[in-house]
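Exercise 7. Predict the joint structure of the components listed below.
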Amino acid sequence: MDALLIQLLNGLDKGGAYALIALGLTLTFGTLGVVNFAHGALFMLGAFCSVLFKQVLTISKKVKDESITFFDAYKEQPYLEIWWGDTGAMIIDYAVPISIIMVIPVMLLIGVALERGLIKHFYKRTHAEQILVTFGLAIVLQEVIKMFFGANPIPMPAPDIVSGSAAIGAALGLSDNLVYPWWRLIYLVFAGVIIFSVFAFLRYTTFGMVVRAGMADRETVGLLGINIQKRFTIVFGLATVVAGIAGAMYTPILPPDYHMGMDFLVLSFVVVVVGGMGSLEGAVAAGFLLGMLQSFASLNEVKAIFPGIDQIIIYLVAVVILLVRPRGLMGREGVMEE
Amino acid sequence: MIKSILEKFSLEKNSSVMLVFAAVVLSAPIWLTPFGANYPDLLQKFAIFGIFAIGFNILFGLTGYLSFGHAVFLGVGSYTAVWVFKLFTMNVLPAVMLSVAIAAVFALLIGYISLRRSGIYFSILTLALAQMSYNLAYSVLTPITSGETGLQLSSEDPRYIDSLLGAGVQEGLPATNFFGMSMSGYSGFYFCAIFLILAFYISLKIFRSPYGLKLIAIKSNQKRMLYTGFNTRPYLLSAFVISGMFAGLAGGLMAATDPLAGAERMQWTASGEVVLMTILGGSGTLIGPLLGVGVIKYFENIFSALNETSLREIFNFLPDVVADFLVSITHVFVGEGWHLTLGILFMLVVIFLPGGIMQGVGIFTRYYKKKMTELKSERSVEKGKSQ
Amino acid sequence: MTDKNEFDTLSRRGFLKASVAAAAVGAAPMFFMNNANAYTNAPKGGTFTLGFNVPQTGAYADEGADELRAFKLAVKHINGEGDGGMMNTMKPIVLKGNGVLGKKAVFVTGDTQTKSDAARASAKRMIEKDGALMISGGSSSGVAIAVQGLCQEAGVIFMAGLTHSNDTTGKDKRRYGFRHFFNAKMTGSALGPVLKEEMGTDRVAYHLTSDYTWGWTQEESIKETTEGLGWKTKATVRTPVGAGDFSQYITPILNSGADTLILNHYGKDMVNSLTQSVQFGLRDKMVNGKQFEIIVPLYSRLMAQGAGDNLKGILGTTNWNWALKDAGSKAFVKSFGAEYGFPPSQAAHTCYVQTLLYANACEMAGTFDPSQVIRSLEGFKFDGMGNGETEYRAEDHQCLKDVLVVRGNQNPSNQFDLLEIVKEVPRSQVEYDPAIFGGKLGPYKV
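Solution:
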């Protein structure tokens, strides 16, 4: 029972992460009609914004380790700690959540610049060309990050107070073994809030209404004298921000390295397509479905019956769903079908 | 009368296309020397990936169906070939033939499932099926594929046909051969080159046949085709299988020249590579994919190998200060930075030449022709004046 | 080509004629390629070429960069530049610091991308185009085994870089391949006594294992050791390589009743699974009245940086560490540190030592002919290269030497001081019978 409960929670947790990663991608698909292979790279950029933020916070006074004579070895103490003592230490401890304040404007800027400078010119181009140019962009971004931060993962611990596990089982009067990491729970809530905000933004604001109208019929909206181009720029910026903060908040779970974007790229595409192209609800539903299935497929009891099922479950589900439902779970007709 | 002359002329023209192509391919060891690309392995890779890209182009270039799982057929071809070497004979002919056949079976299966959808849904179906194959080959299917290590020959292999024919037991591993002709080195390249020329010929035939026209019609407007009562599925499926067989052939040749088959050959990045090659060169054109192959493989093998020492040698003729400066700049883009250069190249090509390198070639030749006619007319004007 | 109406009617015979004519043109250079040398890439002129094949892109790029630094340093020392490093401490040594057999060492580099195909392509370029006599480097067992096979066929010596799988010198061993790194079997033997001492004989182990050959061989070796101590094995779970998020594999551990987690992961997988296991509170857990423990059998200092504080106090093994106090290690750390400003990794140490050993073997053999060089490397015993007395075993080309058991440093005194050496397990304890893994070395001459 406990085992099933915790796996259920794990499925939710994974699903939340998948949905959040796929959200920005489906936004760009649905509104701009652009296949963005650089989406993973934007996720990675967000994570490294956070890394950079922490590195700035932890600029340190270096005290040479005199026992080492052949090269410079230091014992480091951040200036922030020297100046502000415990307050400084606390700020460093909270580097990841605080970094969000920096990640949002930086990613918005990057997103707007990319849309204005590059993506805009590819709205009318074929998907193949979109793939090539965004893939090229992803490689360039990746290599630039590698040049500055190296190829190894970088540790980004969560704040000390939430670095351990929450004793959910004990709180609910169930087994003591039912624990779950605080940071993952926070990430799940965080994903929920972001997803909900994006939904609300598109559904209940005039801006969102115009964007949705633009998705349906761009020409007519243009004829009505509305500057849809400007709105699309903002949508791309929004998608970039969502990808960026998703990446930044994920760093305590997955120490970031320059290649992490590529690792998530295929997964996020599968989630989006299973959900149905251009459908936000679909992407969220697909995210949770795939997360849940993957969590349960990884159990040894399941693997004993279907060897290797955990390796292929996501793809298997994608194939089955696309065969049963031609446009994914909630896809609209005519989006990205030619 | 005139019609027959015209026909004869066009025949002449097409055979000259093949003649030029064959001459260019077979003389590659000569004209690639100044580029530092004249060594057997790279030449073989050019030819093999050329076949792979030509095949991919038959599907993508003609029908517009973007498969993201074509590397599976390459991998299947390789595994088949290595197993034939292990079980039957080191002669490459049966191995290559079986690779094509097994790849065709896989292509039929995957094509049958994936072609039920179009657009990006088709792409994701191929991607998903390919990733499943890769993941299983890497882990659970290790008894067949030998997983991460890759399937290699072993001295304990039975090789039934070879041992029947009385091949003596030798110390060490036997080498692949084509009736005694070695498959490593330049002879291996010529063996692959013949297949490349054949593949190009088939692709030429398809591009210029009514069958090819129908595939193009599917690309431009499948709905209209369907409305006219035309069943597109058999055409799509056959194109998919043909291109899968090309990939299988490429995989078989890869194993023939270097008897090893690894799962990573089937990973989505490998499928992505052939997509990039084709688009980079110019999809839907006959030569484009080959140019794309040339560029990417050249980067992967030559650019990645440049290091500070070799750069210094290149800039040796310059004054030290200038040389140091140039080395420090170029250093970023070669060696460990070759990915960066490739990424920038992708972006530049697709931004300025949406039709790939072939579009650049087209622009250049049109410009050249225009200049020539201008020159001619100027000359005739001048002639008129002088008279 | 643009005119699609013009259907092709090229005749088969015309095509064949064309091909034959073109083949005749193309075949011309082949006649110049015949080469009557007794062995592959016999050096001409005053230099001999070494091929350094390391990952420059992908997850192990930093390790590759460190290997390359070590290679360059080794070439310098062989040619008599710099302070000589381990050339001053190696015993016996016939190198004189003037190159090898009167020829200067030069090198070429390439990118393995940590992929077998790319690594083989790169090695082939070095052999076919650049005339490399020896190939070295690499950062994974799959790549090492693939390149080793190639080198055997080509008749070029391969000094394997970082490879820990039993197969490299086990079932896939080759006459032309040598390994300085230790293997999973030796990790198991070295860890055994320390585990017994620190954790007792009554434990229940749970394995998370990378689902590929290296992971399996390590799981097997560790399981053999721990079960030999009297531990029980609760479960062995295979995880996909590059899974990223391992949470779905960690959750079942909480309820399993196991009190020890063994992570048979390397590189990024290790960093991720360790970080996440700690987040799940495993290290704070008490099971069966015992403190829950995590073990990472194979450590790499470079990668360990990514795990940060999660690493502290966790046991594992490593091939070499810069903090070793023997003369050879100190000499190497000194010249590496002076050159680059930081200490070398175990990957760098392996690659440096192997380059020196190869050069020394050529000088000993009096020729670059690999069949002779192999004979002088086989059974070669030496000292002063770190890890004490060392032997390249003739039967399987596995290097036998002391193995380090280390622990993540609780209180590092500087930024490089990540691992604390718990024990230098003597060679006699990690030795094993070379026959147990099968495989054949193959011929000296190819």
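Discussion. DSSP finds 15 helices and four strands in chain A.
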